[in-house]
Fold Replication initiation protein.
Amino acid sequence: MAKIIDRPDFERWAARARATGGCSQPVFLTGTVKHVHTGTGELLHHYSTDTEPDGALPVACKTRRASRCPACAEIYRADTYQLIRAGLAGGKGIPESVSGHPAAFVTLTAPSFGPVHARRVRNGERVERCHPRRGARPCPHGVVASCGVQHSENDPRLGEPLCADCYDYAGSVLFNALAPELWRRFTLALRRYLAKSVGLTQKEFRETLAVSFAKVAEYQRRGVVHFHAVIRFDGPGGPATPPPDWANVQLLGDAVRHVASAVSVATPAAPGIPARSLTWGAQVDVKTITSSGTLTQQAVAGYIAKYATKAAECVGTLDRRLLPTDDLAALPITAHARRLISECLRLGALEEFADLRLAQWAHMLGFRGHFSTKSRRYSTTLGALRAARIAFVREQSPGWLPPDDQDPALILAIGEWRFQSQGLSRGEALVTAALTGRPLPPPVTANGSSA
């Protein structure tokens, strides 16, 4: 670290670290940018990374994963917060009147694939015993499916099956793989059910009411995803128009519960694996979102944004793709995650499940959907938020500007860039964290996963 601080170009190195926001795994590029007058062919300005420290320019990695880069993940979290909040309270181009539209915070869970160690808290205080069962008999594998422990929040056994050999690993990874399709069918069926329940045709319904949503996927400790979603009623013109009086949260809640219990997606049969119908779990939660009270618009936005930066790390799996050279038995993952990954690889090798790409998404335990999605008219977009940030940065640090006697419309920027490397050394990461005040990411092991 002392060598970094003592280097003669440290000030430029430090300025670049601040410019990337403290990114812990920046992408280093080499190349040039030329500004040429299209009328005369005159070279007005020339930039080359040869003048940079180490001959390369760092660019932020822009990952959403907090386990890989806390700095870039924080930007993604903040953008997601603004996106969700704008759809509930207005702002970012959305009228504030949207705060008066009926909206609910909906949680759709996965079904059970076998009993797992769990922490249950009654009335927000008393921790109940995990699975107390008097007179429970051993399963075919000789394991008694009972646990009388009051688990702590950090107990590594949370999410682990009481009997791994009885646990439905195939069902777990297939649910993850098909959860996006189950969600798509849920949104379609929700609109159809709402139209039917108020006596409207689909055309009449679209001309009367619009249903907007924003959702995020969260991994449970047992390794399956469930969805948290904001669902909002609008008029036919979107957030700028109020919905009809009969469109209230009670109607929305009844429709969500009915549709969640009705939709399903079928899996194909394969050798030794029967076809099955996957559905949402029995626990469906619908809560009203208000501007004040126990579940405010800000609280919902913060909750969803927090999970937008996480993946399957809580299960004890990898935060990167598996490599052909990886030895599954030697990877630093939990036994439960290892069996889930192994099941992804086993099913992924079968022709019947080829479309699910289970092997490619084994590190995500089969889930390959986007973690956060929204309907088109819910609110602003991440692209719009990023464009506004880029414009602000350019106003603050415009860089090279053409001479006053030159027409900017006649100046062409020609860039040529090549990838050089990615990531900082441990010393560089320490200095970057000190310069920017950003948290230091966990060290990366030899196989590329966070320790």
The mean pLDDT is 90. The first helix runs from residue 2 to 6.
